[in-house]
Amino acid sequence: MSRINVIFLVAFVGALVWVFLFNPEGVERIQRGALKVFRPSIEASTNLEETVKGFGEPKLSASELKELLDEAQRERDQLRLEVLKLDELFEENRALRSALNYSENSPLRLVPSQVIGRKPSTWYNTMVIDKGKADGIVPDSPVIVPVGDYAGLVGKISEVRNDNTSVIILATDEMCQVAARIEGTAEQGIISGQRGALQIQPDLHLRYLPKNATAKEGSKIISSGAGDLFPENLLLGEVKEFKVGAIDSEATVVPAVDFNKLKNVFVILPEKIEVEGEGGDPDTGAESPKPPDSNTGSPVKATTQVTNSG
Known about the structure:
Helix content is 31%, strand content 28%. It contains three helices and 14 strands. The radius of gyration is 43 Å and the shape is elongated.
């Protein structure tokens, strides 16, 4: 090594000693510069090390993954069930509020009831409700539900079993017969259920109409009030088909009530109910005969004013 090289080496070493011992700011600048230059390499090395370590960690087996998936599905199904229960409670609450409101605003004396029993073999014949003797229910009490703004006929009480249970014979049963007429006319007949397939809601059969009677498809059929069993102007259904026979006329009627969705019904208490302005015989309590008005005859509405006689 030449003398000049030795001198430069000594000078360089001396400069380094001076920088590190007597000039901290210079040291920091050198460190920052070095870190800036080598940072990418350091970070890449760190990431590679973590990746390599990850390969050595244990993985979940297929059975463990399936168990986790099954558990997640069970939790999902449970949540769905809870949502369905809440929806059902909400709908039941809404229906009860609606029933209470209808009962309070109806001109008829009604007993709100819930359907608690129904057999598939007699689905369109009978049903059991949760009201009985303790609520004033007696045989032949008419049973209705709201159909829009109207009172639709469900049937009548056929048996009061005890204080808290009664049986309804439905309007779709052949044995439930109601005096009825075509809305807006004086043409009267007898309507009843008719036998049909168990899975399909049967139509009603309106018979014994006058031979010269006429009814268009869609004409409403309402109770006539004859016989005093069913109040006048309860909605029964709409004409589906009309036929003129050799002696009389008849019609096939689609029921106004959906008998597949009955949950809450209303029993009319057994007392005389008259539309205000329509007098009765004060001695017998019977309705005074009156000529029919073809411009009236709308089904009973919740806002109809009535008075109870005698």
